[in-house]
Design the sequence.
């Protein structure tokens, strides 16, 4: 459990100005010698010793200038250790394993102690003085690190953190709001719950470059969907309409005027593909991060399909390999009739995409490249399904997907952008498997996980494919998934394969009862760390193609 120190810092300002200790004779020279003796290669042990030293300083009665001097000497070592701790849990899915979770807790505890120290110095100095501005900047710096770690690990920010950031970020007024504070607003508005950890870091980097273009204004004439922050709250940016009735909004509400910044971002995006800067195109990663910020600032698009509250459970399987094994080894393959049975359920709205498809004649001709049943290239029986599924509680659903919830312990291992096989369990009945992608993931204080799964196909087919190696010889068969076309909605058939180099510009061979059949990959619709999704067509001369 993360300590609620940020909440205490915000709620008990006056109590912080009266430390209880008596060791007021701490010297900078002694601290420097102590820092040189620390084993910096051992991040955990050093972090524990740093935490103890900072807490000892926080309990001491020190003059504000002495406290600031000591903390400033601690900063370089503290930030080095925080980077090392971060490296220990930056990889992996969620929920984090216990060792990584302990490293995260240690990092947050050290950040909180440093924020408390600078908060003590800030409350003991004259408002507007150089020392107060320095302390406020360091509070925003470390508070921003805590917020970034929360977004990086898909956890809700610690209670009191946003209140602290609002207080110090707006200390000089709206028009002179700290650049660090504006960076944090931009990053938080970019839906960090729907970004991979790598993209979270990239969005923070781009937000730092763009922060000077973000304007904060006091008016709410920018529209109900304009993002705003309530300076007296403990929440991040949210649409103006969420803040309540306009008559109840106080002058403490700041609206984020998106127009100047959107012009800058769109100019970068327009130039980025042709040469920016110095005639070179922007990297694809940078373009993706800019689009994430743009999407967060632009007016929210209306939801395509209405969400309905629902109950029951959902079974989830993560990862292309596990999904392929589950589908290949399941004797009960999803059939059209099962989806037809779902159509009348009141869970769906009138605009439900599945109501447009089921029961449609397109699904009666279930897509198969040769019109034959697939079989493993080895001719052996398909493997038994891997016991890798987990049960989640259903929260709501729409035609586009599901929102599910589970306890952090025992929920399985998942990450944003991961391929998901999901099926509902309602009143003891197992419905058909659906293929989806985990689009966002959030931990509530690390104990409860909530996720959004977008459904990309109602009936995925497991197949075996082979690729050509560098010598022209076929590789060993590996698992892939084919999703059938839905012509009525203009959805083409796709194939999902591992992100292998051989998939680019080289033929794939589908393993069927008649032997290998070549496929031509066309457009890459999505690329993630665990899979690539392509539209495709059969090569000419190999029979009748099932897709254009």
Sequence:
């Amino acid at each position: 459990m993360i300590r609620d120190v940020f909440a205490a810092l915000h709620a008990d300002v006056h109590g912080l100005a009266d430390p209880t200790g008596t060791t007021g004779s701490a010297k900078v020279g002694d601290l420097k010698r102590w820092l040189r003796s620390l084993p910096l290669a051992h991040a955990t042990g050093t972090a524990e010793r740093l935490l103890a030293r900072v807490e000892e300083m926080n309990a001491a009665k020190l003059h504000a200038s002495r406290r600031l001097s000591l903390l400033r000497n601690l900063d370089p070592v503290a930030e080095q250790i925080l980077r090392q701790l971060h490296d220990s849990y930056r990889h992996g899915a969620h929920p984090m394993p216990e060792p990584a979770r302990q490293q995260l807790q240690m990092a947050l505890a050290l950040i909180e102690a440093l924020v408390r120290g600078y908060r003590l110095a800030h409350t003991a100095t004259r408002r507007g003085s150089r020392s107060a501005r320095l302390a406020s900047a360091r509070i925003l710096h470390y508070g921003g690190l805590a917020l970034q770690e929360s977004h990086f690990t898909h956890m809700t920010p610690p209670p009191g953190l946003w209140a602290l950031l609002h207080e110090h970020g707006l200390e000089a007024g709206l028009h002179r709001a700290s650049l660090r504070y504006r960076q944090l607003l931009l990053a938080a508005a970019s839906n960090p719950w729907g970004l991979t950890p790598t993209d979270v870091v990239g969005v923070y980097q781009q937000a730092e470059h763009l922060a000077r273009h973000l304007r904060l204004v006091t008016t709410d004439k920018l529209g109900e969907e304009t993002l705003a922050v309530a300076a007296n709250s403990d929440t991040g940016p949210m649409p103006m309409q969420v803040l309540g009735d306009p008559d109840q909004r106080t002058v403490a509400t700041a609206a984020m005027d998106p127009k100047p910044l959107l012009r800058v971002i769109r100019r970068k995006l327009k130039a980025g593909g042709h040469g920016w800067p110095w005639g070179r195109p922007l990297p694809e990663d940078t373009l993706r991060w800019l689009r994430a910020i743009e999407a967060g600032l632009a007016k929210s698009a209306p939801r395509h399909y209405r969400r309905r509250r629902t109950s029951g459970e959902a079974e989830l399987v993560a990862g292309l390999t596990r999904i392929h094994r589950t589908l290949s080894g399941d004797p009960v393959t999803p059939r059209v009739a099962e989806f037809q049975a779902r159509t009348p359920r009141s869970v769906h709205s009138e605009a439900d995409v599945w109501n447009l498809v089921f029961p449609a004649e397109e699904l009666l001709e279930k897509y198969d490249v040769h019109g034959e049943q697939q079989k493993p290239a080895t001719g052996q029986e398909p493997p038994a399904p891997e016991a890798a599924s987990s049960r989640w509680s259903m929260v709501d659903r729409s035609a586009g997907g599901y929102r599910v919830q589970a306890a952090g312990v025992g929920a399985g291992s998942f990450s944003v952008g991961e391929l998901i096989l999901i099926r509902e369990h309602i009143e003891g009945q197992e419905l058909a498997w659906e293929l989806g992608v985990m689009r966002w993931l959030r931990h509530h204080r690390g104990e409860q996980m909530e996720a959004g799964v977008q459904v990309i196909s109602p009936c995925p087919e497991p197949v075996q494919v082979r690729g050509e190696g560098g010598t022209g010889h076929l590789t060993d068969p590996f698992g892939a998934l084919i999703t059938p076309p839905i012509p009525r909605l203009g959805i083409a058939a796709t194939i999902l394969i591992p992100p292998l180099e051989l998939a680019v510009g080289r033929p794939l061979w589908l393993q069927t009862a008649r032997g290998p059949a070549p496929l031509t990959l066309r457009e890459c619709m999505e690329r993630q760390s665990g899979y690539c999704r392509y539209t495709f067509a059969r090569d000419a001369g190999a029979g009748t193609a099932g897709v254009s």
